[in-house]
Amino acid sequence: MSMNNKTMKSPWNGRNLIGIDLGGTKTAVALVREGEILRHLHFATRVSEGAEAIIDDIVHAVHALRNDNAEISSIGIAVAGQVERLSGHVLFAPNLRFHELPLKQRIEEKSGLPCFVCNDVRAATLGEWCCGAARECANFLCLFLGTGIGAGMVNEGELLEGGANGAGEVGHMLFQWRGRRCSCGGNGCWEAYAGGWGLSEILSEKTKSEPTRASSLLHHAAGMPLRPEHLSLALADGDSLAREIYEDFLEALGAGSVSLLHILNPEKLLLGGGLIEGFPQLVKGIETYIHLHSLAIASKGLQVLRCHLGGAAPLLGAALVASHAKTGH
């Protein structure tokens, strides 16, 4: 998808749209007009009951919003998974247990509305582009730091999608040769060091290898598996082991970010996701690391910013995709 300065001023064409953020835990459905969320619904995603239960819940929510406005134009769905561009098939979405699911077709059959399906990170990038921190910016990189790491990349006003619609899987770029085992089955991926799941594993390993220094972390975990939020609490306690783990984590995030800046040379680097919510100091820390370790041309004029829209970004991005669904743009 491309948006030049003219279309960026009004990409919505006056349509009433549905934007959906379909996640493994919860689903959000919003009625959107001209970039404004007029009404939204949230509900738990019934993953354990299968794809048809999830589809039924989505269609029910669409009809509930449609009662308020019968002139809905189309539906856009942002999914945490791999999506085939034209067919709208979800090839693989592990948190939803989707595999080769014709989601576009099923939603259109049950709702009677045109539907377009896209990756959630790409949708959130579009949301920030049209309504958030990247408005009217032709070259920027969005990094979403959560359980894993995903990216949305815009170059010269074009959203990079890749030949198989799989661009942006930066969490699986090789970070350390023969390094830590990744959830994808490979070794040394960036998110094994700088994603939420990788950080959780590192916390567990460190507390086992240095139990006498891990009292604060273990106290906050209270017998539960260690997670990034426990690191945040231990940092607030002034815990020295927590500080060491955090510094390594920040360095891993900074190093991977520098590599991406050297490849893409964006004007803006936008940072969002659960890890940024939990560690807001990461934005300044990554910015400092970039200016210390990147080539001068990569950081010249670069703005490092926190994403502005939070959970509204994928809803607005999905709605924006829906606004182009009929024309195929």
Written description of the protein model:
The protein has 329 residues and is α/β, with parallel strands linked by helices. The protein folds into two domains: 5-128 and 311-323, 2-Layer Sandwich (Nucleotidyltransferase, domain 5), CATH 3.30.420.40; 137-306, ATPase, nucleotide binding domain (Nucleotidyltransferase, domain 5). Helix content is 41%, strand content 22%. The chain is built from 13 helices and 13 strands. It has helices at residues 5-9, 51-66, 103-111, 120-131, 191-194, 196-209, 215-221, 228-236, 240-264, 274-278, 282-293, 296-299, 312-323; strands spanning 16-22, 26-33, 36-44, 72-79, 82-83, 90-93, 98-101, 115-119, 140-145, 149-155, 158-159, 268-272, 303-306. Strands 3-2-1-4-8 form a five-stranded mixed beta sheet. A hairpin with a 2-residue loop joins strand 2 (26-33) and strand 3 (36-44).
Give me some keywords for this one.
Nucleotidyltransferase, domain 5, about 325 residues, alpha/beta, 2 domains, 5-stranded mixed beta sheet, 13 strands
Strand and helix layout:
Elements: H1 5-9, E1 16-22, E2 26-33, E3 36-44, H2 51-66, E4 72-79, E5 82-83, E6 90-93, E7 98-101, H3 103-111, E8 115-119, H4 120-131, E9 140-145, E10 149-155, E11 158-159, H5 191-194, H6 196-209, H7 215-221, H8 228-236, H9 240-264, E12 268-272, H10 274-278, H11 282-293, H12 296-299, E13 303-306, H13 312-323
Parallel strand pairs: 1-4, 4-8, 9-12, 12-13
Antiparallel strand pairs: 1-2, 2-3, 5-6, 6-7, 9-10, 10-11
Helix pairs in contact: 2-3, 4-13, 7-8, 8-9, 9-11
